[in-house]
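If you are new to this repository, start here. Below is one unmodified record pulled from the training split, so you can see the exact layout before writing a loader.
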Amino acid sequence: MLFWDRPSEADIYASNTVRCLRKFSMTKTQNLTVRLEKELIKKIEEEAQHDKTDKSAVARKLIAMAIQETQKARALEEYRKGRCTIWKASEKAGIPLREMMELLRRERIPLHLSPDDVDQAWREALGE
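And here is the target side for that same chain:
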């Protein structure tokens, strides 16, 4: 893979944000009441002003992004400890396999592939 074929961190971040928003905006909404520190509310208000939106939209976006990052961190840790395959880790993180491989590279986590992983890759590639 050539260096220009790899997505930049900004591209990955943008695609994750869009994926998070799609994932969480397609469900029916419910109310959730939380207590936040004044400083955090001020930062949310600043983001809302910057994005020309309301505080609720900013809070939903930030919560979705935080959940996505938490899922990624948990999946990376499970993979690092050998508790799941790279395929399962990418599923748990809610990201494509290619992106999971990029995360592993960035985090300097060695890639350990089993014969089952290779078989699964071929099945995916062939659409079986």
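Two things worth knowing about this chain: The chain has a mean pLDDT of 84. The helical segments are 9-25, 38-51, 55-80, 86-93, 97-106, 115-126.
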